[in-house]
Specification:
mainly alpha, two-stranded parallel sheet, 2 domains, two-stranded parallel ribbon
């Protein structure tokens, strides 16, 4: 679902190495070792220094700055804050899934249910908010495309 949303994805080399680690699920390692043509791996020229960020997060922020990326995908709160402080738009896994649902690429409820069964750390409120936002935006889209004005609440 990344390609229809972003067209091209650049993975920092440190993140590539993390995704290729032996403890990473086999399906992820297999994907990383056979990247599609729309995904590339790059090492940033510059650095973002922060004592509490991992190498992958620091490289993601530095690379996003260098490439003038539309967004950087980061889930960890501190890294998100540092990216925003560096003028970079941020999204996370749930944000990408939300956008995919709005584009009718996935069913968000079933996708979030599958994500719950992984080691992904999440806040249930975040999942519920995403489901509500998608439902609201789809309803607004259907209302505007039908030419009807929604009734006041």
């Amino acid at each position: 679902m990344l390609r229809p949303i972003y067209g091209e994805v650049v993975i920092p080399s440190a993140v590539f190495n993390e995704l290729n680690h032996q403890r990473t699920p086999h399906v992820v390692r297999a994907w990383v070792n056979a990247l599609p043509e729309w995904v590339s791996v790059k090492t940033p020229l510059g650095r973002v220094m922060h004592p509490n960020l991992g190498l992958g997060e620091r490289e993601a922020i530095a690379l996003a700055k260098e490439l003038n990326a539309v967004e950087v995908l980061i889930d960890e709160r501190l890294a998100r804050d540092v990216a925003i402080q560096n003028g970079i738009a941020v999204t996370g896994t749930v944000g990408v899934l939300e956008e995919a649902a709005l584009r009718n690429l996935i069913d968000l409820a079933s996708t979030l249910e599958r994500l719950r069964r992984t080691n992904f750390r999440f806040d249930e409120g975040m999942f519920q908010s995403a489901l509500a936002r998608v439902a609201q935006r789809k309803q607004q889209s259907e209302t505007s495309s039908s030419g009807q004005t929604p009734a006041p609440e």
